[in-house]
Amino acid sequence: MPITIPKALPAREKLLQEKIFIMDEERAFTQDIRPLNILLLNLMPEKEKTELQLLRLLGNTPLQVNVTFLTTATYESKNVSKTHLDTFYKVFDEIKDRKFDGMIITGAPIELMEFEDVQYWEELTEIYEWSKTNVTSLFNICWGAQAALYYFYDIDKHELPGKCTGVFDHTLIDPTEDIVRGFNDVFKAPHSRYTDVDEDKIRKHSELKLLATSAEAGAFLIASKDKRHLMMTGHLEYDATTLKDEYERDLAKGPDAPMPKHYFPNDDPTQVPLNTWRSHTHLIFSNWLNYYVYQETPYQWE
């Protein structure tokens, strides 16, 4: 089934080229079925790249998905045009009276800031509170995962000695969990962050379950036992070259930028990196849409 997006969205042509099944809003309105309504709070600086990465995944399942893009009202992004935001994005006041089957909260390059010092933290906490009654399941990525663990479960982040960047092996803890159906016992996933969360606190929390972890990168996949929250500390949604682009950006700021581990062939940054995590990327998003959203959300919200 297709993903429904605005006809003029720039990502549309690239999605069509990649044979992702998409549908214009005009055609979707004629379908006599119940689509899933997904809210995407995009906190990443290069919003169009993130849109493409996530739409590619949401559009590769048997479910019809309507996506609403959300941005912060209390912080104006400097890396995307105001025209793009005005055309394709909503702010919270515009959607707070609606119900959504699922919501994705992306990462943000602000890990070293205290949560309360983030310019839009108060706005985000308002969204979190609203989500308790208006969203079936939240999928939180990287900084978004750390923010959710802090707000909902009182588990804070801590700074690492250096940047955690690279593609790391992860061990699956319980393959019977719905969200990891089809996963290999050991799988790869990219990370790119300066902070981490305490794995022991996650394991001991009565409302949480640790689903996958890495000896090098720490806790990776955490779910609430009621399936309302999924936290992913890395970036399965990343393209093959995303870490390369970030590395080159960091090198431009200074020569001491750490090279992503286990990423470039033969640790040679002149070689083209391979995507070794793609299958698990599609699995986690399709499993989330099916088991955490479609199977859990009411057909008609009260």
From TrEMBL:
It catalyses: L-homoserine + acetyl-CoA = O-acetyl-L-homoserine + CoA. GO terms for cellular component: cytoplasm. CDD domains: GATase1_HTS. Its main location: cytoplasm. Its EC number is 2.3.1.31. It is found in: Cytoplasm. GO terms for biological process: L-methionine biosynthetic process from homoserine via O-succinyl-L-homoserine and cystathionine. Substrate binds at residues 163, 192, 249. The record marks 192 as: Important for substrate specificity. GO terms for molecular function: homoserine O-acetyltransferase activity; homoserine O-succinyltransferase activity. SUPFAM superfamilies: Class I glutamine amidotransferase-like (SSF52317). The record marks 111 as: Important for acyl-CoA specificity. Belongs to the MetA family. Transfers an acetyl group from acetyl-CoA to L-homoserine, forming acetyl-L-homoserine. This is Homoserine O-acetyltransferase. The lineage of its organism: Bacteria, Bacillati, Bacillota, Bacilli, Bacillales.
